[in-house]
Amino acid sequence: MPAEISALPADPTSTAALAGRGLRMSAIDATDDAAVRAWVEADARGFHDGAPTDEFLAELRDDFVLQRTIGVFDDTLADPAIPIATVAGWPAPVTLPGGEVDAWAISAVTVAPTHRRRGIARAMLEGELRTAVEAGLPMAVLTVSEATIYGRYGFGPVTWASRFEVDVRRAGWVGADAPGRVQLISREIAMTTARTLFDEARRATPGDVGIVGHRFDRLFGAPSDAAERRKRRFVRYDDESGTPRGLAVYHVSEDPHDWSAQILEVDYLVTTTDDAYRALWRYLFELDLIGTVKASLRSTDEPLTWLVANPRMIRTLELREHLWARVLDAPAVLSARTYGGAGSLTLRVRDPLGFADGVFSIETDAAGTARVAQAEASSGPLIDLPVDLLAPLLFGGVSAATLAAAGRITERAPGDAATADGLLRSARQPVLTTWF
Ligand SMILES: CC(C)(COP(=O)(O)OP(=O)(O)OC[C@H]1O[C@@H](n2cnc3c(N)ncnc32)[C@H](O)[C@@H]1OP(=O)(O)O)[C@@H](O)C(=O)NCCC(=O)NCCS
C-alpha cells in the first residue's frame, strides 16, 4: 500500500466494467479543491443532505489525504464534474475478541437516483474488496443506511447498537461509589486526553473501529456547526492518582412542558475502567433539572442495567445492527483473535466471490491461541456457513446455536454449534461506538 492512501488508483476491473457502460471511474485527487467539492456535493446529494458549506468543506478537507476517494462520472451530463456515484475507503484497526486486524473501512456509498439499479454500486463495492485484498487487508467493514444492501457482497452484521432513554428520577442509582473524582472541563482540555482514552477503550472493545480525521473531532461537536458545538459539555473522571480514565460529552435540551425536567443526551461516553464507567453515568443520572437521559450507539449488555434499582426505567428505543464486516482472508482473521480455551473446529466457508471460500481448521490451546490452516478434509466438529456469517461468528456476538436454529448455518453433527460457541463467543458483546 502506498504511504499515501489517496494515491491508490481506482480498481482496474471495475473501471473497465464501468467504461463498457460509458462511465468513467477514477480516484479523486486529494489536492484538487474543485474535484473534492464536487465529490462532497455528490455524496451529500446521495444522502439527501443539503449542499456542503465552505466551513463543512474546510472541516473535511484534510481527510481526503487519509482515504482513497472514488468518483464515477457520466461525461455526457450537463454538469459532468459532479460524480454520479461515490465511495471512499481507508485502512483502520478493528478490534476482535483478544486481538485486532487492520481492515478496509468503506464509506460514502452513493449512486445518483438517475443512474441507480444499473450495477454501479456492485462495481464499486467489488472494486473496494479487491483493493483491500491487494493492500493485504484481511477484512472490510462499513456502517450502513439500509440493512438489505450488503449481505450480497459477503458482509454480515457484527455489532448491535442500542438507543435508550432513562427516567433518571425513578431509576434509582445503586452502583458502588468510585474512588476518583469527576470534574467539568473545557473542550480543549477534553481533547488533550480524548485520543488516548478512545484508543485504549477501542483496543479493549471487540467490534470497535479506530477512527481517523474529522470524524474524531465531530464527537466533540462539529467545528462547522457552531450552534451544536456551543451546547456541548465535557466531564472527565480521574482515578485516585489523578489519571484520566473516562470522558463524557453531552448536551441538554429543554422539555417545553417542564423546565425542571430537561433532557440530557449523551453524545459520547468513553471509559477505560469500571470505576470511570460508574462515576460518569452516576454524574449524568444525578444532575439537577434533568428528568431524562438519552444515549445511543451503546452496547446490548451495558452494565448500566445492573447499576439501577429499577431497570425498567431504562427504555430501549431502538436496537439494530451497526457494524458490518466482510472477511477476505479467513486464516488471517481467524488467527488474529483468541478463543475460549483448548479445542478444535472446522469451518466450511462458502463465498460466491471467492475471497474467503474454503475449509479452515482451527486448533486452539488452553490459552485460547489458535493455529489456523486451510484443510482438505477434516473430522470432528464442523460448521458449514455462507461467508456473510463468518464475520458475525468471528466477532463472537452471535451464537452459532442461534444461527443453526435459524437454518442459516449447518452443523456436521448435533452439538457442533455448541462446540463452536464454547470457542467463539465473546465475553462481552461487541459494540461499535461511532459512525464512519
Ligand atoms: C444503495 C445504492 C448505493 C445502490 O446503488 P445501485 O447502483 O442502484 O445498486 P446496484 O444497481 O449495483 O445494485 C446492486 C444490488 O443491490 C440491490 N440494491 C440496490 N439498492 C438497494 C437498496 N436500497 N435496498 C436493497 N437492495 C438494494 C440491487 O437490487 C442489486 O441486487 P442484485 O445484485 O442482487 O441484483 C443507491 O441506491 C444509493 O445511493 N442510495 C442512497 C444512498 C445510500 O443509501 N447509500 C448506502 C449507504 S450505506
List keywords for this structure.
7-stranded mixed sheet, Aminopeptidase, 3 domains, Nonspecific Lipid-transfer Protein, Chain A, 13 helices, 436 residues, binds coenzyme A, alpha+beta, globular
Q: If you had to describe this structure to a student in words, what would you say it looks like?
A:
Residues 23-179 form the N-acetyltransferase domain. Homohexamer; trimer of dimers. Keywords: Acyltransferase, Transferase. Belongs to the acetyltransferase Eis family. By secondary structure, the protein is an alpha+beta fold. It is 26% helix and 30% strand. It has 3 domains: 5-137, 3-Layer(aba) Sandwich (Aminopeptidase); 162-320, Aminopeptidase (3-Layer(aba) Sandwich), CATH 3.40.630; 329-424, Nonspecific Lipid-transfer Protein, Chain A (2-Layer Sandwich). It has helices at residues 12-19, 33-46, 54-61, 120-134, 168-171, 187-203, 214-218, 226-231, 274-285, 330-334, 390-395, 400-405, 416-424; strands spanning 24-27, 68-73, 85-96, 99-111, 139-143, 156-157, 160-167, 181-185, 233-238, 244-253, 262-271, 290-298, 314-321, 323-327, 343-350, 358-364, 370-374, 382-386, 410-411. A hairpin with a 5-residue loop joins strand 16 and strand 17 (370-374). The protein is globular and about 65 Å long.
